[in-house]
Protein: Probable sugar-binding periplasmic protein
Amino acid sequence: MLSTRRALAAVVSVATLLAASACGSADEDPGATKVEVFTWWAEGGEKAGLDALVSRFTTDCAGQRFEDGVVAGGAGINAKEVLNARIEQNDPPDTYQVHAGAELADYIAAGRVQDLSAEYDSWGLRQALPQGLIDDLTVDGKIYSVPANIHRANVVWANSQVLAGAGILRTPRTLDAFLKDLAKLRKAGIESPLALGRDWTQLMVLESVLISDLGPKRFAGLFAGTTNWRGKAVTTALNHYAQLLSYSNPDRDSLDWPEAERLLIDGQAGYQVMGDWEAADLEANNFRAYEAFPFPGNDGVFQWLADSFVLPTGAGNAEGTRCWLKTVASADGQREFNLRKGSIPARTDVTGAGFSAYQVEAMKDWKSDTPVPSCAHGSACPQDWQNAMNAVLGGFSTSAEKNITQLQNALAATADQYAKG
Ligand code: BGC
Structure:
């Protein structure tokens, strides 16, 4: 996959795309009915993607007006709290962003979202989306959300100049090689070579390490109740994780992902583990001296997540929401959104033409790699489990002693509570 610097330098300039995308406000019809779209895409590459969808929606959905219900905070860390409170008060937005998989299943089980099976039939979505994804969106034969994309989580982003400055010219393929490179960077004067942010970004690092040390099948089993969180391989992974953490910035717990990304851009760090929304965001920041590769030991494994949109029970403007969902589902909508978001279309009939070298590789990998879901981004875990894991990792990060046995017991306890096995 995607490891060459040259290939990535050739990425289509998202800055150009940004300029071409407008949020459509100038063309809005003041008499139109509003559709409140609730996301956490507030700035950078995320906002650019949203703006592209809005632009298409404004063109395709006459009489409807986009209203931005954004609540900032990576991975929806703040948005989900606000959303859940609104849902509790029977005040849902007209539509909201939710991850396909376990996270969506929560909303389905609670009766919070409406069946979209008829829309899937009339929009031809059963043919346009991969069967595996349809399965992840379906509960008891009904299908409840429309995916906008596929993101990959287990990716390392690197500052090529920082690496070259430390004489690192090869992509690390194993965890040991990665740890050696981190030591090399520190020796070369980069005190905190691994840029890291708060709890959920730490969970992303942990999940990548678990994939390396357990392999995809046993990794997926951790969340399906078939792999023992108290086992030896998990202990090995947690030791690796603690080593990685020791190379990260001490202020990690107070940073969101774009602030950690800033450390990478400014050359204060050499690496960051992050999903491929980072591709769009680095471009939006006009930073091109980067490379990307699968987390060491994750070759051939695609840790996926998908942003999807729903028709909530009690949505104020169901007709407008249907038009939003149709836009999200359409080949044009998916193309324009994903060009700017760093992800790839969920539809299989959108070609790679015009997409960045990174995205074309990701499309290829998505077809050939072994897919595993993500807990930090809701494809593997329900929200309560995500929150519990985040709390455990945040606690570990701030603890002075970094006790691995305690960490393992605490993680295992979250699985005891939430795994469905
Ligand atoms: C979402 C992405 C988003 C990322 C960072 C993920 O959970 O699926 O769309 O870019 O969080 O905010």
User: Anything to note?
Assistant: Residues 23 and 51 are 5 Å apart (CA to CA). The chain is about 50% helix and 15% strand. The domain at 7-151+306-369 is CATH 3.40.190.10 (D-Maltodextrin-Binding Protein; domain 2).
